Amino acid sequence: MTTNLLDLAPAALADWLAARGEKPFRAQQVSRWVHQRFVDDIGAMTDLAKASRSALAVDASIAGPTVVRDTTASDGTRKWLLDAGNGNAVESVYIPEDDRGTLCISSQAGCALDCAFCSTGKQGFNRNLTTGEIIGQLWHANRTLLAEGVTAPWIDQGRPPITNVVMMGMGEPLANFDNVVAALHLMLDDNAYGLSRRRVTLSTSGVVPNIDRLREECPVALAVSLHAPNDTLRDRIVPINRKHPLSELMAACQRYIPAAPRDFVTFEYVMLDGVNDQDTHAGELIALVRDVPCKVNLIPFNPFPGSEFRTSPRARVLAFQDRLKHAGLVATIRKTRGDDIDAACGQLAGQVQDRIKRRLATRIVPVQVQPGTPST
Ligand code: SAH
Ligand code: SF4
């Protein structure tokens, strides 16, 4: 079987080349070709001897993702839907801003944690993405944007289009720990993407033991999906809370602070009308996070077909934010981007997955067409 070079973290690439008799500095050269020049052909690595290139090409390739759909919203937000096999797809979302280019990437096809308000959770768990599929999203975005001639001041200075990565796409990154950490090492490596730890954010719903492992192995910026200020409510809307309740989660956040690249953690809090957005909730939240240096990011709920929640009215979100601010917390409201292309977590993949599955089902078993079934 050939090795996909995108699957190899820096140390693994060095070992892989050493096993083939190549000198250590070759790893740096190969890494730059793959992750900085975005080649997909070993033959193009012209500072390697022809014989080396031919030998490596026998059992290695550079296999990026297959794009199922490519959509750009009116505000420039762009979503790539990437094939994950068996009728599944994952998303990466590019968010261009004046001073940065952010890529939101996925870590799993589906998610097992089943948060009540999440479209990815509703799709169930399919599988972990490989390291190559995770870093491949960053490789693909940079490569595509450069090939299309995207412009930005930092690109003129020789930096790649994507300056910031957020692991806030589909899946729970800390439930796919090894592959995610290998991809993070590539993001930070100077011979690969060279991003600083403060420009890489991992969002977790609270897999507590792996928050500690992340702190030890690769402490990037941490965002925690809190969404509820007490265990009763959080047990209901973020079910992993039943395994790792708030007291454990807050303690893990405190332990993370000394390693955190910007001395705080971000708490994400999706605003659900009448569920977690009342003044009493704000009061509980203030008390809960008192001992953790943090910023709170209030997220307008993004409804999807079949979701049981409504978005909190704008006035309620502002009142909630005010309460937090008066208590001395830094509280921001997330801008919604790419609304017209369903850029929020898991939404488009869910629709496409349904359609692909329906199509596969039609091919494999003779299904009776229900009256009113949309023809896709
Ligand atoms: N599994 C990780 C990362 C992916 S989700 C986590 O849960 O943190 C990224 C963020 O989007 C999380 O804060 C998640 O709670 C939030 N989210 C999920 N569904 C949403 C929806 N329908 N509207 C708004 N935010 C949502
Ligand atoms: Fe999984 Fe995160 Fe969605 Fe929860 S919010 S189901 S952890 S992707």
Describe the structure in your own words.
This protein is α/β, with parallel strands linked by helices and 376 residues long. The chain contains 13 helices and 14 strands. Bound molecules: S-adenosyl-L-homocysteine and iron/sulfur cluster. S-adenosyl-L-homocysteine binds next to β10 and β12.
Compact summary:
This protein is an alpha/beta fold and 376 residues long.
Order of helices and strands: EHHHEEEEEEHEHHEHEHEHHEHEHEH
Hey, roughly how much beta strand do the residues contain? 15-25%
What is the strand tally? Answer: 14
Number of helices: 13
From the spread of the alpha carbons, the general shape counts as: elongated
Side by side, the strands of the main sheet go 3-4-5-6-9-10-11-12-13-14
**Overall SS class:** alpha/beta
The rounded distance between the terminal residues' Cα atoms is: 36 Å
Bound molecules: S-adenosyl-L-homocysteine, iron/sulfur cluster
Rg to the nearest angstrom? 22 Å
Uncertain runs are 355-376
Describe the oligomeric state of these chains in a short phrase. single chain
